[in-house]
């Protein structure tokens, strides 16, 4: 078995990323086989439980209220709507439901209570439950854990250096703090990033160093290719090539051997052969459903046909870690603290974000 290292340097990771593709693929596939079943891929369903109207300024995101995009926002879904969607996802082969809310951070109150009930409901369907709700405190992480949350997603997005060219409404350290709060519970960590935002290969390596030097490393690392949505600051970015995606997946696999590497946004831009190369390079999870939060995604039937062609099996839930117990609201030992944490707000000017904010609808 290849050892888990927490001391990767940017130079080492960059050297791996730049290797000839055949060498890189050979090594990554070897590491993948030592730590995972190469014929099993987890299918997850991403549900946008609260869409749009977000106060943040993430330069890639159509859900930021300040940009002029065509997405339709919605208020928080109800528990029964979420349950119905989770049952559909389960029936079509998903073992995990990831619920995303376009919030800067979680606030204690009725909406969070409702999310906790959604977590309880899905965990009782024997599916892994993941949430991505923005920044959270330790108390909120503990309450999610008590409800039966399996994973919390909080992406680093890119390197610390490039982060300030993408987002000005919070800092890289806030991300690390939320990940740290999740780590104080038994909830697993899902954290990755996006390529194709104008970052350099050094930034890609820098993000992988930030993730791989966490101890323990994240149990899941989503690798997204930017979907350039009209109206966002990044609407004119060129799509990443399949070779960049393959390099990123393979490098992630080599530096984080045990991690579940998730092929996330941008799959509609990839051929089936390209996706197969990513699986060979170590990707072992996809998101199913015709939408990924707000951007297009291959439909489930297409994915199942690809699985059939490649002889892949969907991964069962709770293979990596036992199912958490759900504590009912009435039996909870934890109370909301009503904290008002002072997450940072650097507020520096990012020219393309400013331009997209002041532009009319494109
Ligand atoms: S990525 Fe998340 S935090 Fe950033 S604008 Fe979009 S919904 Fe808000």
Give the helices and strands, then pairings.
Blueprint: H1 10-17, H2 21-35, E1 40-50, H3 79-91, E2 96-101, H4 110-123, E3 128-132, H5 138-147, E4 151-153, H6 160-163, H7 172-183, E5 188-190, E6 193-195, H8 201-212, E7 220-225, H9 242-255, E8 260-263, H10 272-281, E9 283-288, E10 291-292, E11 295-296, H11 300-310, E12 313-314, H12 351-358
Parallel strand pairs: 1-2, 1-9, 1-12, 2-3, 3-4, 4-5, 6-7, 7-8, 8-9
Antiparallel strand pairs: 10-11
Helix pairs in contact: 1-8, 2-9, 3-4, 5-7, 8-9, 9-10
The chain binds iron/sulfur cluster.
Residues 54, 56, 58, 61, 63-64, 102, 134 line the site of iron/sulfur cluster (SF4).
Structure description:
By secondary structure, this protein is of the alpha/beta class. It has a single domain (10-318, 341-356), classed as Aldolase class I (TIM Barrel, Alpha-Beta Barrel). The protein has helices at 10-17, 21-35, 79-91, 110-123, 138-147, 160-163, 172-183, 201-212, 242-255, 272-281, 300-310, 351-358; strands spanning 40-50, 96-101, 128-132, 151-153, 188-190, 193-195, 220-225, 260-263, 283-288, 291-292, 295-296, 313-314. The strands form two sheets. Strands 1, 2, 3, 4, 5, 6, 7, 8, 9 and 12 form a ten-stranded parallel β-sheet that branches. Helix 2 (21-35) crosses helix 9, helix 3 (79-91) packs parallel to helix 4 and helix 8 runs parallel beside helix 9. The longest helix is centred in the first third of the chain and has 15 residues, at 21-35. The N and C termini lie far apart (52 Å). [2Fe-2S] cluster binds at residues 98, 130, 190, 262. InterPro entries: Aldolase_TIM (IPR013785), BATS_dom (IPR010722), Biotin_synth/BioAB (IPR002684), Biotin_synthase (IPR024177), Elp3/MiaA/NifB-like_rSAM (IPR006638), rSAM (IPR007197), rSAM_sf (IPR058240). This is Biotin synthase. Catalyzes the conversion of dethiobiotin (DTB) to biotin by the insertion of a sulfur atom into dethiobiotin via a radical-based mechanism. One of its GO terms (biological process) is biotin biosynthetic process.
């Amino acid at each position: 078995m290849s050892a888990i290292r927490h001391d990767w340097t940017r130079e080492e990771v960059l050297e791996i990323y730049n290797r000839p593709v055949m060498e890189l693929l050979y090594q990554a596939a070897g590491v993948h086989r030592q730590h995972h079943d190469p014929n099993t891929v987890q299918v997850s369903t991403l549900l946008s439980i609260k869409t749009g109207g977000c106060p943040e300024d993430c330069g890639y995101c159509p859900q930021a209220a300040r940009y002029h995009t065509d997405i339709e926002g919605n208020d928080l879904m109800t528990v029964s709507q979420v349950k119905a969607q989770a049952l559909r996802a389960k029936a079509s082969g998903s073992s995990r439901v990831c619920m995303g809310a376009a919030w800067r951070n979680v606030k204690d109150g009725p909406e969070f209570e409702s999310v906790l009930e959604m977590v309880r409901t899905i965990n009782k369907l024997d599916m892994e439950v993941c949430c991505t709700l923005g920044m959270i405190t330790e108390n909120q992480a503990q309450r999610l854990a008590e409800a039966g949350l399996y994973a919390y997603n909080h992406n680093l997005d890119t390197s610390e250096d490039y982060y300030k060219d993408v987002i000005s409404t919070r800092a890289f350290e806030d991300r690390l703090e939320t990940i740290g709060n999740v780590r104080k519970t038994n909830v697993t960590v899902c954290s990755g990033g996006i390529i194709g935002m104008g970052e350099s290969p050094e930034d890609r390596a820098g993000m992988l160093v930030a993730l791989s030097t966490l101890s323990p490393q994240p149990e899941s690392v989503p690798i997204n290719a930017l979907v350039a949505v009209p109206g966002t600051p990044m609407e004119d970015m060129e799509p990443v090539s399949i070779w960049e995606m393959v390099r990123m997946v393979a490098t992630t696999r080599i530096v984080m051997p045990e991690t579940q590497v998730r092929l996330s946004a941008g799959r509609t831009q990839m051929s089936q052969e390209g996706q197969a190369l990513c699986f060979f390079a170590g990707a072992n999870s996809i998101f199913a459903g015709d939408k990924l939060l707000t951007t297009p995604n291959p439909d489930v039937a297409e994915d199942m046909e690809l699985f059939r062609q490649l002889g892949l099996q969907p991964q069962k839930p709770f293979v990596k870690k036992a199912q958490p117990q759900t504590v009912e609201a009435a039996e909870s030992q934890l109370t909301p603290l009503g904290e008002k944490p002072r997450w940072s707000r650097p507020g520096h000017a990012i020219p393309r974000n400013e331009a997209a904010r002041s532009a009319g609808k494109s």
